[in-house]
Amino acid sequence: MEKTETLEAFYKKKFNWLPDNLQRDIGHFNVFRLEDCVGPNAVPIQYSRRDFYKVTLIRGESMYHYADKSIRTSEPTLMFFNPAIPYTFETLSEQPTGYFCIFKEAFFTEKLRVTINELPLFAIGGKPAYTLTETQDKHVSQLFEKMLEEIASEYQFKYDLLRDYTSELVHYALKMQPSETLYQHVDAKSRITAVFTELLERQFPIESPSQRFKLRSASDFARNLSVHVNHLNRSIRETTGKTTTDHITERMVSEAKALLKHTNWNISEISYSLGFDEPAHFNYFFKKQTQLTPSSFRNV
After folding, report:
1. Which value, to the nearest 10 degrees, does the dihedral of the CA atoms of residues 60, 78, 5, 30 take?
2. What is the reported pTM?
3. For 13, 99, 165, 168, which has the most beta carbons within 10 A of its beta carbon?
């Protein structure tokens, strides 16, 4: 899988320029017409994570590959993308139309009563696709047109309005049922393995004793991905030759060694940060994997 696409990479690839305020504004927001960004000379979209959120309205036939699923759309479809989930899409129509907006989490930080990842349409394991009727398409299109008009204006408080328009899109979708037209992709096993790996790695490095490694079992990951644990285990085993538990254990041992060698945290603090309720459980785990106790490893 390609490395995470940053906002800087997005602008350079699509437009070969960077907005003047990109580095200053961590809550960056922008909006585009889809037809300005696709076509015969467009750069292919790689299957990867982004470091920004994206909301897209697309008309015309297309296929989105999202985590371990593929979503085929032919009707107008509103879609929501989370930075934690890798995705790409294939345009199957010659002239697709629509809109999309991109933004950083900080764009909503002060306005939402919950974190954006708690919203069902952005949640890991959630369903991001909402098929629109003609009336719904018209309403959503009007919101995007208002965004385009506003972002081009000189109005002092335009980003407050843009935030409101985006929030209205979110709430409009929350009132609808997501599309169930989800197809398992022929490469679904590779995709679910990629998402598992991303979720595992996003928990590291552990930078303070108060930070805790929470997804510690195959069941934890399966629950977050909304897949059966047997399906997750089988996909990872067939893709990598290792079990889900093997991957989790290897990453925990690697982090434990780093913390023992490069921090002055005591064994209890390291134990807690790695998700163990008791230091004795951590001692047993570490010795089983390395044939050394944590204290012995630290003193080697």
Report:
1. 100
2. 0.59
3. 99
